[in-house]
Amino acid sequence: MIGLLAKPNRAWRKSRLAARLLLRKEAGRLSQRDRALANRLSQDPDVSNRLIQQALYFLGVGPRKHAFDRNLVGGRN
Amino acid sequence: MPSIETWWAGEIDWSAPAGQLLKRFVAALPKDRPFHITVFGSAPLQLTVDRNLLSGDVDIFSDDDEDLSPIVEAAGLGKTHGGFHLELGFELSFRTSPRWRQRAKVVQLAQVTLTFPHPIDILIGKLNRLEPKDMEAFKRVIELTGHPTASELLAELQNAVDLFRPAFDDDSPNHYPENTRRLWREVFQCEIEVRREIIEPAIHRRRQGYGEPPPDYKGALKS
Questions:
Q1: What are the Cα distances from residue B49, in Å, to A26, A40, A57, B54?
Q2: Rounded CA gap, B109 and B23, in Å?
Q3: pLDDT tens readout for residues B58-115
Q4: Cα torsion for B150, B156, B162, B168, to the nearest 10°?
Q5: A-side interface with B, Cβ within 8 Å?
Q6: Cβ pairs A/B, distance under 8 A
Q7: Do residue A25 and residue B215 have CB atoms under 8 angstroms apart?
Q8: What kind and span of H or E run contains B40?
Q9: ipTM of the predicted structure?
């Protein structure tokens, strides 16, 4: 039962973690461990750009989203 | 733009040929359980707009795709018996606006719930073939009700944009674009650019509803 409940949240939890790592990266505060985790999440099929974007809004990036995107992602679209 | 519901009261003329046939059909159905049936094709127009809009059959489908042919045949109301008859279809046969159920007229006759789509949805369904009798139906509905206007129909077709998607196979190509152009020429006496006026605005609105496309955050995680 716990497995069934946990499964639907997995993608969201990972994407939220990915969003936190991006915020840390933008602030220049990524540790070695963070970098390794970020790299793993970048290849994780559960993690999607759309869900990361939702997580970023969830974490309060909304008012400065465009600046955040410019600084972090730049012309990567 | 006035609501699409305001120009159609949906009053059923049960004395029309289609009404008489439906009453016979309802009387033939088993009384011990409910039935949910939709009447499509030209019959709803005959029953609610113009009793002179005649055809040889009444198209119906069971809302749960139940096979009603044994009942129809036993009651002598199928095509094999000749004369005015019931033509059984499926909901998949009724290609029209996705909004059709929310503006249909629903009538209860004993244990049978009959659904009659709004004329706009019947007419949109006729764009699939747009045979001469279908074109006549458009003209007659507009003549009697003043609707749909060109702008009303345009808005409705935008909401039904998926009807304009290319066909699955070459044997049955999608005639909606071509028939829409034909209809505009004959009924509204002007040209319509289907892609620019129907498809593109609809797709644009749909994309807006999906929200902003996200940047490549996964790529940013890598570096």
A1: 65, 64, 52, 12
A2: 8
A3: 999 999 999 999 999 999 999 887 788 999 999 999 999 999 999 999 999 999 999 9
A4: -50
A5: 18-19, 21-22, 25, 38-39, 41-42, 47-50, 52-53, 56, 69, 72-73, 76-77
A6: 49
A7: no
A8: strand B35-40
A9: 0.88
